[in-house]
Amino acid sequence: MPGMSDQKYTVKRISREQHLDFVTARPSVSHMQVPSWAAVKPDWRAESLGWFRERDGALVGAGLVLLRPLPKLKRYLAYLPEGPVIDWSAPDLEAWLVPMTAYLKRLGAFSVKMGPPVVARRWDAERVKAAIADPGAGRLRDTEATVREPPAVDVADRLRRMGWQQAEPGGEDGFAAGQPRYVFQVPLAGRTLEDVQRGFNQQWRRNVKKAEKAGVTVDRGGYDDLAEFHRIYLETAERDRFIARPLAYFQRMWTALNAEDPDRMRLYLARHGGELLAAATMLTVGEHVWYSYGASTSRKREVQPNNALQWRMLCDAHALGAAVYDLRGITDTLDEDNHLLGLLRFKVGTGGEAVEYLGEWDFPLNRVLHKALDLYMARR
């Protein structure tokens, strides 16, 4: 039998059904790599790609690629957010990626962007807290990690040798223009809810109790409640200085994702005395659960609706058998004046860990057009 390095793969378009079957058979795949994500992004053309092992014709990899057309040209930016879903530990990474870039070039792509779902480093809650408290620590990326994942270094070296370029980690706040490189996760595998709550810091435990005592209720909402969620989401966007998505985006997301799996997207609403104070969307793919979008008002903060909301979502993620509850992006900037530091502190209170992924990588197929895109993105 040939060794792994002798394998050859063919990349071609697959059906949504084949793609979904492949994803469903895996414990963890990004919510941006399921076929239904294509319907959430109507400004992009989308294709499901399959990797077939030439030796036996088996489907061994899949990826959702989004194609963004250049104005007036039939050329595309090809983007695989948090993907593709291939064997990233394979010693023959070239055999997986070369046929992908060749296929995308034939489609008319001038540049390929992807986000390998490969973890590079982890910092436990204590390490992050110490970094925040250290006046000499400017960024999380410059502080000593609790765990380093050696395979990530190997993957990064191989990508560079193949001509892939690592995108910058992001702007001043550490958030990338694409998907977040730094996220915060609460591991749930092999832990009871009591273990999880014991991992909370004192403030978090106190706030969960306070919300319960004050009579904060957290319920699941439906499609019709998205408008109410969106109302306080707009308030949050103004307060936290980010560009809000329109209500239609969340409605499209709900319809598309839940048509694929009735439990793919959930909405949670925290109320006190009948008044909506906080809300959040939750996404599930296999054993991975994400806190996706959050919203809260500035009213009645003393009843701690955000802690109540997250605790309910954590409990439900645990009941679903999730291995990880993912609180998504965090800033890696530890500057006291940064408005995102409060959000990092809130997430650290869960006792989870900060996780750094390899980030996003670009492969220019046409250097002139790729450079033009870079200049355009820099001006935005």
TrEMBL record:
InterPro entries: Acyl_CoA_acyltransferase, FEMABX, PG_Glycine_Bridge_Synth. Pfam families: FemAB. Gene3D superfamilies: 3.40.630.30. One of its GO terms (biological process) is regulation of cell shape. GO terms for molecular function: aminoacyltransferase activity. Keywords: Acyltransferase, Cell shape, Cell wall biogenesis/degradation, Peptidoglycan synthesis, Transferase. The keyword Transferase applies. Belongs to the FemABX family. PANTHER family: LIPID II:GLYCINE GLYCYLTRANSFERASE. This is Peptidoglycan bridge formation protein FemAB.
